[in-house]
Design brief:
By secondary structure, the protein is mostly beta strands. It contains five helices and 45 strands. A hairpin with a 4-residue loop joins strand 33 and strand 34 (615-635).
Length: 806
C-alpha cells in the first residue's frame, strides 16, 4: 500500500509492538504486525523482544514523513539535534549529550543506537541518515542492547526502516499530495508517486517511488550586531581598540529562513527464477537541502536568531542493495550486501566562538607593528564561520542461515563484514580579513606535508584552522542465536553470541594557519595523526565476545512472559587532542585513544492479547549498567584547543515501558503508552572533564513520557469518514552531563487533530498539528557557543489528498 506522508509535528501516540497497522475493524480485533527483529519473519507478539513496530498504515495515520517524526514522540525514545540530518537518537535514557556536526567527522563518537535502512546499518556520528518516509512497510524500534544480531552501536537499541518491496502479479499506482500553512512561518507542500509493475507473472516485478517535499521555515534571522567583549573572553587584549570589533548580519536577515526539502527516488526489482530462490536489487537516491537553523535564541526573541555567516546544508546519499534468499535442504539461506555513498556539505555561523576560543585575539586582533599606527592593537570584524565536507562510504555483507522454525531447536547464525571510510574536510574561517592575515605574515594555509591529505591544495584566505582527516573502521563478526523449547510451545531458552574483530584508524592532520608568529605556543605546528603526541601508523584493534540469554514462558497462546540478559558495545577511537600535555598543569594529559563503553541489560517483559483480541497490553521493566561512558569535551582554557573524548563515568538506569491498544468497537480504537526512566550517574572518574555530580540524571531523558490517541471511523453515505485526536507529554530533562553545557529543558504537551474521508481509491484529510502552538524544548545546546533551543514546528494546518489504485 502506498505510504505517505508529510508534516507530523506531534502525533505519535501510543505506539508499541502492537500498534502496527492502525485501524481495528473485523470484530473489534487488533491487526497483527510481522517483524524481522530476530532475523526471521515473526509476529511481534510472539517474540520475546521489546520491539515497537510502526506499520505502514500507522505511519500514514500519524502523518510521519522524516526521522524526527517517527522517533520524537515514542515514549522511550528521545533525540538530540539541530534540524534535519543533524540529530542523534537515544533509547531508554542512554544519553550523554549530542555531538556537534562541526566535529562529527573529526571527533564524533559512534552513536549508541544503530540505524538501519533495510538490511544495512547506516549510522554516522552526529548526522543521522534522515530518510524521507515514502512507501515504507514499517519502522522497527528495538529497545535495549541488540549486539548479538545487530552488532556495534546497537548498544541502547536499533532503529530499522523497512521499505516496501515489489509485489508479484499486481499493478499498483499511488499518488499523494499535501499543502499546509504554519503560523509564524511559510507554507509547505509535498508530492509522492509509487508504481508497482508486474513484468513476468510469478517471476519478475519492479517498483518505483518518487518524492519531493518542501517544508517552509518558521525561524527568523533578524537584524542584529555582535561585539567582542573582553570581560567575557579573558584572552582578548586589554590594550586593543574595539571600535571596529562589531559584526553585522544586515546582508543575511530573512524571515522564515529555515527551509528544508527532501527530493529523491527508490527503484527495486524482484526476480524469482525458482520457487525457493529470489534476487532483490534496489537503489535509492535522496538529496536533503536545509537553510538556516532550527534552534532559536530566547535572548533575541521567540523563533528568532542573529546569524552572521550563512547556515546551509546539502546532504546527498546513494544506496545500492542486493539480497539473495533461498532454501537448501532444510536451511533458509540469506546473503545481503549494500553500498552506501553519502556526501555532506555544510556551512555554519561560528561567531559565538569569540566567547570561548583560546586564540580569538590571534585571529581577530592585530599586533603592535602590524597596525596602521604601529602603537595600538585593533580588533576587527569578529564574524567567524565553518565550512565542512564529509564523504562517507560504507559497504556491508552478511551471510546467514536459519534452521526450520517448527523444530524444537532453532538456530540463526551468520558472518558479517563492514567497512566504513569517513573523509572530513573542515575549514574554520577565523581571520577578520585576508588583509589582516597577510599583514601578520601568514601564508595561505597548507596541510602538513608529512600527513596523509584528502585535499593537498592550499586553503582559501581567511581560514585560520582546518581538519583534513580520514577515519576508517573495518570489522568482521560471527554471530548466532540458538533457541530451544524446554517445554514445547510453553518454555523456551535462547542463547546468543557475537564475536567481533575490529580495526579503526585515524589519519591526516589538524592545522593552525602557517606563519612566523612564535609565542608561548607554536602556532606553526599542527598535528600529524601518524606521528604526533603518541599517534602512530598502527590502527586501533579490538575484539571481544558479547552475549545474550533469554527465557520465555507462554502459558497461553495470547500471553508471553520473558526475561533477558543482554550486552552491547560501541567502538572506541582516537583523540585529536590526545597525547599532548594539557595547557593547565593541574589537568592530566588526554589519552591518545578512548575505549569502548559497555552495557549490561537485565529485563523482564510481557506481551498479552485480551478480550478476544480487542485489547493488547505489553510492557517491560529493566535495569541497565552502563560503564566507561564516552563523554566529549572542549576545554581550550585548561586542556586542549581540540575536542576530546574520555571514558569518564558510570551510570545506572531503571525503567518501565508499557503500551495499551484497545479496539473498543468496530469504529473506535484507543492507544496509550508511557515510559518511566530513572537515570543516575553512579561514579565520575574523569580528571579532564567536569561532569555533573554523582546522583545526577543523564541527558535528554524525561523521567516520564506518555502518549494518548483516539481514532474513530464511521460510514457517511458513500464515504468512509474518520477523526483522530492525539496528546503527547514529555517531562523535564537536562541537555548534557557536562557541567558547562548542562541546561534544564522544560516539560511540554502537544496536541493534534485530523478529520478525513475516503471513497473507493480516493482520500482527503484536514489536519491540525501542534494545535496549541506549544514551544517544545527539544534540545538546549551551546554547540555554537551561543545558547539556543531546538523546538518543534509551530501550529500547522493543512490538507492531504491521496489516490491508490490496485
Amino acid at each position: 500500500m502506498f505510504i505517505k506522508k508529510k508534516l507530523n509535528c506531534a502525533m505519535l501516540t501510543a505506539m508499541a509492538v502492537s500498534v502496527g497497522n492502525g485501524t481495528a475493524y473485523a470484530g473489534a480485533t487488533i491487526e497483527e504486525v510481522v517483524v524481522t527483529a530476530t532475523k526471521r519473519a515473526e509476529s511481534a507478539q510472539d517474540i520475546p523482544v521489546a520491539v515497537q513496530a510502526l506499520g505502514g498504515e500507522t505511519l500514514d495515520d500519524l502523518n510521519v514523513s522524516n526521522f524526527d517524526d517517527y522517533i520524537r514522540f515514542l515514549p522511550n525514545v528521545t533525540a538530540g539535534g539541530r534540524g534535519p540530518g543533524q540529530s542523534e537518537v537515544y533509547i531508554r535514557g542512554m544519553s550523554i549529550d549530542a555531538i556537534t556536526v562541526l566535529l562529527s567527522g573529526a571527533q564524533g563518537s559512534t552513536p549508541n543506537v544503530a540505524q538501519y535502512l533495510d538490511e544495512q546499518p547506516v549510522t554516522s556520528p552526529g548526522r543521522n541518515l534522515d530518510v524521507y518516509v515514502a512507501d515504507i512497510e514499517r519502522v522497527e524500534v528495538l529497545a535495549g542492547p541488540q549486539g548479538t544480531l545487530f552488532g556495534a552501536s546497537s548498544q541502547a537499541g536499533t532503529v530499522r526502516m523497512i521499505t516496501n518491496k515489489p509485489v508479484m502479479n499486481e499493478f499498483e499506482v499511488g499518488l499523494d499530495a499535501s499543502l499546509s500553512s504554519t503560523v509564524h512561518g511559510e507554507d509547505s507542500n509535498s508530492a509522492e508517486v509509487v508504481i508497482n509493475i508486474p513484468v513476468i507473472d510469478d517471476t519478475l516485478a519492479v517498483r518505483a517511488v518518487f518524492f519531493n517535499s518542501n517544508e517552509g521555515g518558521y525561524i527568523d534571522n533578524v537584524a542584529g550586531t555582535y561585539s567582542l567583549d573582553p570581560n567575557v573572553n579573558p584572552t582578548l587584549p586589554t590594550d586593543a581598540d574595539y571600535s571596529q570589533a562589531t559584526a553585522s548580519n544586515a546582508d543575511l536577515t530573512e524571515e522564515d529562513f529555515n527551509d528544508s526539502s527532501y527530493k529523491g527516488f527508490r527503484l527495486s526489482g524482484l526476480y524469482t527464477p525458482h520457487e525457493d530462490w529470489s534476487l532483490l536489487v534496489g537503489h535509492m537516491q535522496q538529496t536533503l537541502e536545509v537553510d538556516g537553523v532550527f534552534d532559536y535564541d530566547p535572548a533575541v526573541g521567540d523563533l528568532e536568531v542573529n546569524r552572521f555567516f550563512e547556515d546551509k546544508l546539502e546532504d546527498t546519499f546513494n544506496q545500492t542493495t542486493w539480497t539473495v534468499e533461498g532454501r537448501m535442504a532444510a536451511l533458509d539461506i540469506v546473503y545481503t550486501g549494500a553500498y552506501l555513498d553519502r556526501e555532506v556539505e555544510q556551512s555554519v555561523d561560528y561567531t559565538g566562538y569569540n566567547n570561548t576560543g583560546g586564540w580569538i585575539a590571534y585571529y581577530t586582533c592585530t599586533y603592535v607593528g602590524y597596525t596602521a599606527s604601529g602603537s595600538q592593537r585593533e580588533c576587527l570584524d569578529p564574524t567567524k564561520g565553518f565550512m565542512g565536507q564529509a564523504d562517507i562510504t560504507r559497504q556491508t555483507h552478511e551471510f546467514r542461515i536459519s534452521t526450520p522454525q517448527e523444530e524444537r531447536a532453532r538456530l540463526v547464525a551468520g558472518v558479517f563484514y563492514d567497512k566504513i571510510v569517513l573523509e572530513t574536510l573542515d575549514d574554520y574561517y577565523y581571520f577578520a580579513s585576508p588583509e589582516q592575515q597577510q599583514q601578520l605574515g601568514f601564508a595561505l594555509n597548507a596541510p602538513i606535508s608529512t600527513a596523509k591529505n584528502i585535499n593537498p591544495n592550499t586553503r582559501p584566505a581567511g581560514v585560520g584552522f582546518f581538519n583534513d582527516i580520514t577515519r576508517t573502521e573495518e570489522q568482521i563478526a560471527v554471530f548466532g542465536e540458538l533457541a530451544y523449547d524446554i517445554a514445547p510451545e510453553t518454555l523456551t531458552a535462547t542463547v546468543g553470541l557475537r564475536y567481533y574483530d575490529m580495526e579503526s584508524d585515524f589519519e591526516g592532520s589538524s592545522n593552525f594557519a602557517n606563519g612566523p608568529f612564535s609565542g608561548s605556543v607554536d602556532l606553526d605546528s599542527g598535528r600529524d595523526y601518524d606521528s604526533s603526541g603518541g599517534h602512530t601508523t598502527e590502527p586501533l584493534k579490538a575484539h571481544d565476545i558479547i552475549t545474550k540469554f533469554n527465557l520465555s514462558y507462554t502459558p497461553t497462546p495470547d500471553t508471553l512472559f520473558y526475561g533477558t540478559y543482554s550486552e552491547g558495545f560501541r567502538p572506541g577511537g582516537f583523540n585529536r587532542g590526545g597525547g599532548l600535555a594539557s595547557r593547565n598543569p593541574a589537568f592530566p594529559t588526554v589519552e591518545v585513544t578512548y575505549e569502548t563503553d559497555n552495557v549490561k541489560n537485565y529485563e523482564l517483559g510481557w506481551k498479552t492479547t485480551l478480550a478476544d483480541g480487542s485489547i493488547r497490553f505489553n510492557g517491560a521493566v529493566y535495569f541497565i549498567d552502563w560503564s566507561d561512558m564516552q563523554v566529549s569535551r572542549f576545554d581550550p582554557v585548561n586542556v586542549s584547543v581540540l575536542t576530546f573524548i574520555d571514558n569518564s563515568a558510570d551510570a545506572e538506569i531503571r525503567g518501565l515501558d508499557t503500551d495499551l491498544v484497545w479496539a473498543a468497537s468496530e469504529s473506535l480504537t484507543l492507544y496509550a503508552a508511557f515510559s518511566y526512566i530513572d537515570t543516575e550517574l553512579v561514579s565520575t572518574d574523569s580528571e579532564v572533564i567536569e561532569l555533573a555530580p554523582v546522583g545526577s540524571e543523564l541527558a535528554l531523558t524525561p523521567k516520564f513520557q506518555g502518549n494518548l490517541r483516539a481514532r474513530y471511523q464511521w460510514d457517511f453515505g458513500e464515504y468512509e469518514a474518520y477523526w483522530q485526536g492525539a496528546l503527547q507529554y514529555a517531562g523535564s530533562s537536562y541537555s548534557s552531563v557536562v557541567v558547562a553545557d548542562r541546561r534544564k529543558q522544560d516539560s511540554y504537551t502537544t496536541a493534534d487533530l485530523s478529520l478525513g474521508v475516503n471513497k473507493d481509491s480516493w482520500g482527503a484529510e484536514l489536519f491540525v498539528e501542534n494545535l496549541t502552538d506549544e514551544r517544545a524544548e527539544l534540545f538546549h545546546n551551546v554547540q555554537d557557543d551561543i545558547p539556543r533551543i531546538t523546538t518543534n514546528r509551530p501550529r500547522t494546518i493543512g490538507l492531504r489528498f491521496s489516490y491508490d489504485l490496485q
